[in-house]
Amino acid sequence: MEYFVYIIYSKALDRYYVGHSQDLDDRMNRHNSGSSKYTKIARDWEVKYTERYFTRSEAMAREKDIKSKKSRKYIEYLVGKDVG
Length: 84
What we know:
three-stranded antiparallel sheet, 3 helices, 29% strand
């Protein structure tokens, strides 16, 4: 199985959110439908960056690493280097 670490962005809030998921399409549907606790305030979330991992523990560790930096600048660096 494949796991994704993702960064999404809401233009309405001018805010990024970092998460991980096995099914990115389903996860995005939940973010934009308002059924996700931390992102329900907006409905315009777009995927800006992804990384793939083979295990959930790897994805969780990377998500934690990104969040531990507590840096919008770092997130924008990652988003800026992603081409697709």
